[in-house]
Amino acid sequence: PQPLLEVRDLKKHFHLGSGKTLKAVDGLNFAIERGETFGLVGESGCGKSTAGRTIIRLYEATGGEVLFNGENVHGLRGRKQQEFRRHMQMVFQDPYASLNPRMTVGNIIAEGIDIHGLYTGKQRKARVSELLQAVGLNEEHANRFPHEFSGGQRQRIGIARALAIEPQFIIADEPISALDVSVQAQVVNLFKKLQKERGLTYLFIAHDLAMVKHISDRIGVMYLGKLVEVTTAEELYANPLHPYTQSLLSAIPIPDPEVERTRERIILQGEIPSPLNPPSGCPFRTRCPMAMPECAAVMPEFKEVKPGHFTACHLY
Ligand code: SF4
Ligand code: MG
């Protein structure tokens, strides 16, 4: 069957005043099946948020294609584009900055309903109540303002807003990174519950592999604007192939102190290079413990090295 979303050689380059080009997203290829959660992971500055924003067309792509239900959405204009936007919504990282402080929660949630002219009056009110309940809040909250809520509650409001026009696909850009550790699991569980109830498909962006472990069916790892590995969550945690993925996984603490004491940590040398001046050949080579001479000369191709397991590394 056709995947819900297909990203082909997606690029987003920013041309800076200095004549330099920032290749924030530089040739991504992946697909997301209906009802699936695809976790997109990488350190800050790797291009994962830019990728999300380019897919939903908050940014125009520099190159490549985004197919939604088989249709290239980056070619859509006018009414067809508006129609597409109904099916794809975004939940943002910062639950403080992303809600207008002067609007009531009810009006924030109903924004999409109003833009698309879906419901008015009693029906609109009933829809807002239903959404508040679906995210674990209640209908009295509709008349309050964002500042009256905690970070976790505000993120629930952001989720209700994204759900209001019944999208099929949600891009969640680090939706739990700004929250207290104590509420992160609750918000992840809310995403899972809503997925089950509404048949949603997610692109779930995060900066470490611990955060996406319990929600992702498949995971993509990004480094300097490129995907370095994509496979199922199970396979990635059990059998990571790319040295960068291996180092990210070795940084996650293991609860069992016995295991924790005896295992080896892979400590990466140096900082992420500037995306304005990426290394020749493999972008990871300046920090890779396995780097070989050919890694500086030739960019490794992103390819399927085992069924359903893709990586970009000369070791395979
Ligand atoms: Fe390391 Fe070379 Fe593989 Fe890049 S291609 S990840 S430098 S071994
Ligand atoms: Mg970001």
TrEMBL record:
Record family assignment: Belongs to the ABC transporter superfamily.
UniProt keyword Nucleotide-binding, yes or no: yes
Annotated InterPro entries: AAA+_ATPase, ABC_transp_ATP-bind, ABC_transporter-like_ATP-bd, ABC_transporter-like_CS, Oligopep_ABC_C, P-loop_NTPase
UniProt entry keywords in alphabetical sequence: ATP-binding, Nucleotide-binding, Transport
Domain ABC transporter: residue ranges: 5-249
GO biological process: peptide transport; transmembrane transport
Name of this chain's protein: ATP-binding cassette domain-containing protein
Organism from which the protein derives: Paenibacillus validus
Lineage: Bacteria, Bacillati, Bacillota, Bacilli, Bacillales
Entry's Gene Ontology molecular function annotations: ATP binding; ATP hydrolysis activity
Pfam families according to UniProt: ABC_tran, oligo_HPY
PROSITE patterns from the UniProt entry: ABC_TRANSPORTER_1, ABC_TRANSPORTER_2
Keyword Lipid metabolism: no
Superkingdom per UniProt: Bacteria
